[in-house]
Amino acid sequence: MLGFLKCSTFAHKVEDVVSLIREGKLVPDSRVVDILLKSLDTLRTLFEDIRDRGSDDRDVSEILNLLHFELSDIQKKEPVKPQPPEEILKETKSKLLKILVAEDNFSSRFLLQKLLSPYGDVYVAVNGKEAINAFQESLHQEDPYDLISLDILMPIKDGQSTLKEIRLIEKSKGILPGRGVKIIMTTALTNPKDVMKSFDEMCNGYLFKPIIKEKLLELLEKFGLLNQKLPR
User: Of 4-13, 69-78, 81-90, 108-117, which one has max mean pLDDT?
Assistant: First the structure.
């Protein structure tokens, strides 16, 4: 969305490899783990370049080729057939998600509720403090949220602070990075620094307002929330 195509392409390649591990199609041996660790270092460097210089023109071809090799090797062994959208929706309805929308603007909150309601039970919070209380209560009841949508600009406690506190709560509960709730940041702002700050605090995705349904569903599918077997 911001035009940093090299960084975006690289991140998607890394994500594809991680997805293969999650699906049991790629064994995370020492070679694969080494590639992923190098990829993480490369992503951090690209983020720093964007933040400091406003550019992602660094040469990452060497590590990108290693990622491409892992994907090509798996695809030769077992081609992955894309799941038809209607099948994804059918499967999702039998495994409803638990979703929290934290948004102080009524129109935006109503739109997100409408877009997300076919995929699960949608709860709402009108500020960051309410969102944190709801998140803590869900952990206490051992019924955690699968997805949280946070608006960056909210009263009492903003989205950035809320995101950071949620990740700290997860850490205190022994929830490893990447294993916690999926969090989407939403905003009408277009400042790249806001985007980078969100990713620094470990959000999973970012959407600009007005929210477009196709973009939202792309993120849900990318997170594996539309077709994974959810622990209910």
Answer: 108-117
What CATH number matches the domain at 85-222, 3.40.50.620, 3.40.50.1100, 3.40.50.2300, 3.10.28.10?
Answer: 3.40.50.2300
Write down the residue that tokens 């990318």 correspond to. 222
C-alpha 41/C-alpha 58 separation (Å) is 13
The rounded distance, in Å, linking the Cα atoms of 73 and 148 is 35
pTM (two decimals): 0.56
Q: Edge-to-edge strands of the sheet including 205-208?
A: 120-125, 97-102, 147-151, 182-187, 205-208
Pinpoint the residues of the chain covered by CATH 3.40.50.2300.
85-222
